[in-house]
Amino acid sequence: MKKKILVTGGTGYIGSHTTVELIQEGFDVVIIDNLYNSEAGVIDRIFRITGIKPELQIFDVCEADKLNLFFRNHKEIDGIIHFAAYKAVGESVGKPLDYYRNNLLSLINLLEAMKAFSIPRLVFSSSCTVYGQPERLPVSEDAPIQPAISPYGNTKQIGEEIIRDTTAADVRIKAISLRYFNPIGAHPTALIGELPRGVPENLVPYITQTAFGLRDELKVFGNDYDTPDGSCIRDYLHVVDLAKAHVKAVKRLIENKNKTNYEIFNLGTGKGVSVLEAIKSFENVSGIKLKYTITSRRAGDIEKIWADPSKANNELGWKTESSLDESMKTAWDWENYIRKAKK
User: Fold this and answer.
1) What's the DSSP call for residue 303?
2) What is the third-level CATH fold of 4-185+237-268?
3) Of 7, 67, 118, 338, which sits 20 to 30 A from 328 (CA to CA)?
4) How many CB atoms lie within 10 A of CB 114?
């Protein structure tokens, strides 16, 4: 019998790609999403990729009554992957209470429901922002957690602490936190990808929208950082590679291969790429000269970070496969597809 996985935020960017990988690996998937930063039509595109249409329940995980009703009607859930959260670093600086309420209440509601309905497995969407600006690079899972630079990052730190304490108090619950570095790109079919509402907060959709003519120009936030070209450095990994890690994490919990009740893994390529290098990669694969200007630093941004992914490589049997250029190519293919589809 197929194992059933609940994916919160499953019509979003990473959630939709993970849903595809779960279905292709033989899992039954049900999605909860309030469509705050996504659209229901993603379900049809998941069907076009996989031949299977996952069930979609439209409500907010912060609404405990609706969540408990869902679990009363879905008693066969074998595990949860929790994506549903606000995720923009810059926005969180201006709207901290929105971020704390949404990101923490949703997690607490889920954990309480897991206890009440005896759901034993959770994979949590965490972030490399929990490291702040690391003292040593590349950063490994045992690096000291620095004070968060943004409320978004702090919600991920606190979220991890909540899960750690819950799994310590109730050994029936096993959890894995996956600390993402910077997901980019889109599915190779160009049927799903990153589609932010309004002005993009993340670099690559801003690049592709600028290239398509939807934005006048790209802003590079700072060129005076202590990096080779003065722009911020990040670890960019393809979203399909990232999605596959969630399947590995779910299988690890189902097969009881976890070494402790709560585990943490970095997900990244292990290679730092500057903003200006990312722009150059896009220009190479698209053949388009991008219009951009250098502007002042952005609140909440750290200077440089990239992963030591060796624990995920060795323990999960996972590693990234796609190059930066390949990721940029799929992002550009997706931008072209979605703009034509919206005409």
Assistant:
1) S
2) Rossmann fold (3.40.50)
3) 7
4) 22
In 10 A of CB 294, how many CB atoms? 14
Q: Which residue in the block uniquely carries the two structure tokens 């602490």?
A: 161
**Residue type present at position 214:** L
Per-residue pLDDT of the chain (343 residues; tens, 9 = 90+): 899 999 999 999 999 999 999 999 999 999 999 999 899 999 999 999 999 999 999 999 999 999 999 999 998 999 999 999 998 888 899 999 999 999 999 999 999 999 999 999 999 999 998 998 888 999 999 999 888 888 999 999 999 999 999 999 999 999 999 999 999 999 999 999 998 888 888 999 999 999 999 999 999 999 999 999 999 999 999 999 999 999 999 999 999 999 999 999 999 999 999 999 999 999 999 999 999 999 999 877 889 999 999 999 999 999 999 999 999 999 999 999 998 877 6
- What does each C-alpha distance from 19 to 8, 26, 184, 187 come to in angstroms? 10, 11, 17, 12
Residue type present at position 227: T
* pTM (global) more than 0.85: yes
State the Cα–Cα distance between residues 290 and 292, nearest whole angstrom.
6
Nearest CA to 73 out of 102, 34, 24, 32 is that of: 32
Q: Write out the H or E segment, with its range, that includes residue 329.
A: helix 324-342
Give the pairing of strands 233-234 and 273-274: antiparallel
Query: Of these residues, 13, 86, 152, 236, which one is catalytic?
Result: 152
Catalytic: 337?
Answer: no
